[in-house]
Amino acid sequence: MSSMRCFSKKRTIADEEEESEGRIPLDPPTATPPPHVSNETINTVRNMADFGEILRTIGDFGLFQKLLLFALCFPNLILTFHLASVLFVQSDPERRCNTDWILKADPSLTPEEQANLTLPQETDGTFSRCEMFVPVDWDIDAIRDYGLNETTECQNGWLYDKSMYEATIVTDFDLVCGKANLVQIAQTGLMAGILVGSLLFGPFAESFGRRRATQIPVVLMFVFTVTTGMCPNFYLYLLSQLMVGVGYGGFRVNCIVLATEWMGVTKRSFGSCVSQLFGAFGQCILAGIIYFIRDWRLAQWAIAAPLALVLIYIWFIPESARWLLDRGRTEEVKRLILRAAAINKRTVPESILEKLTEDKPVEKGGIRVLIRSPILRKNFLTISFAWFSLNLAYYCLSFNMANLGLDIFLTQLVFGLSEVPAHILCIWLLEALGRKLSLMGTMGIGGLACILLLTVPQDNAVAVTSLAVTGRFLMNWAGSICNVYVQELFPTSVRQTATGLGAIGTRIAGLLSPLLNLTAMFHWSIPTVVFGSLSLTSGALAFMLPETRNTELPDSTEEAEGTRTMKPMKRGSDLRMSDHNIISSCKL
User: Fold this and answer.
1) What's the angle, vertex CA 276, arms to CA 274 and CA 277, rounded to 5?
2) pTM of the predicted model, to two decimals?
3) pLDDT digits (tens, 9 = 90+) for 529-555
4) Closest listed residue to residue 49, CA positions, set 557, 584, 552
5) 318: alpha, beta or left? (left if phi > 0; alpha if psi -120 to 50)
6) pLDDT band at 405 (very low <50, low <70, confident <90, very high)
7) Closest alpha carbon to 268 in 105, 519, 568, 484
């Protein structure tokens, strides 16, 4: 018996007074916590439970939360604009080689005469768009009499048809003929940056806070959006877009988490769905911006203007109180709680604030927690695969927008408008059907819509566009569900890491989507078969995920694994009873 140690809870005068008043039961003489529960973990559980109670006291969706939600969601209206320079391009614009060298021989030549004398013709009678005759130092009569026969690649650039766009990255950087595939590289560069941003700023937020992890990406986006518009060559453009992508990915993975951690159970889906809703409106606005601004450089500066506004107010957003509690910074939490209560016009009883202790949590976050726990590992891999599959389909359909057969501006507007009801319905559907069934349904039906693209004639633009819009609609819907789901599957200590690492799957999908679309040169059906099949498979695998509707955000690994349920606590006495039960679970 001497080898057995038993833990005795220290009694205070306040405890004895409460016991004498009948508010809590007397402590047992001796008690030993379970082997996996330390004093620090107990205090952490108490802090987190207290925060859930305090959140209900100050209002879990009052003016404070609404202002925070708007401030964090508004930039998503702009994020979509960053795709403008890679979406609104003519991959094979009408053009001809610049052959102004012949004007030295005769400046009075008409464009038709100039083309006849300096450009070879294709078998169909049209002028070559990638070759020209080798320049010669002859007079104009000799050129007319003898003609030119030796051909070469365009040596002095191209002259482009500007009936659709004044300037694109294709026309400014001459991404045609032998450089035509660099358009896909440009798309891949932006996606690579988003991938790096997700990888860096997910773990960054665990160490330095959600607030800093949203502020720094905004700075990056603003600086390099302006820089992108001034790039003199393709390689600097690619580097600048990479850095824009880093900011894009970093902000995207952190803004939803920060908003969600300040909200109550019933409104938790708003963090993801409203963010996505702003993105959908951004899709619609983007169509208008490019319709009226046909120069990609001017469009970049138009994007930078609202980002400048975000750059000003982003420094005033609050930190996540849950993260601060997880770090043991309770004094800062108290100040934020009082600030939120004042904005929500609520009062906070001093007795509630006193429940917060200064103990630092013993549970550490990081990827090791996800790897060690079989349940968290299964959930992480399943939700990451779903995220990867839906984004592969989404970006493949988006980047192929110009090839669907309809006007590109109309298609972009339809794509954006189709997403608006998706995110509005998502808020209702998540509460009505739950997370699990919603994810299975949207992924399954969306994958089926993509597969049906194989059954319609490719020259039927209306049918192809309708199915593409339907598939994209459902994939975007599924994306909102995943954004909510991932917040509820993992504890506070690893929530941001899981979100950031899971988002890597989405960015890898964005990275691969232009390359997957390139496989259409071998057979047009290959991309559709791949992303459609993956969507159906991930929809089926979602059956393995637990349902998290109407549950509190897990604040410990045990809660996330389902080995301990943290019930909502509405009274201080209930909270103390829970603490007492944890401490008094003693095995002798």
Assistant:
1) 60
2) 0.71
3) 999 999 999 999 999 999 988 787 787
4) 552
5) beta
6) low
7) 484
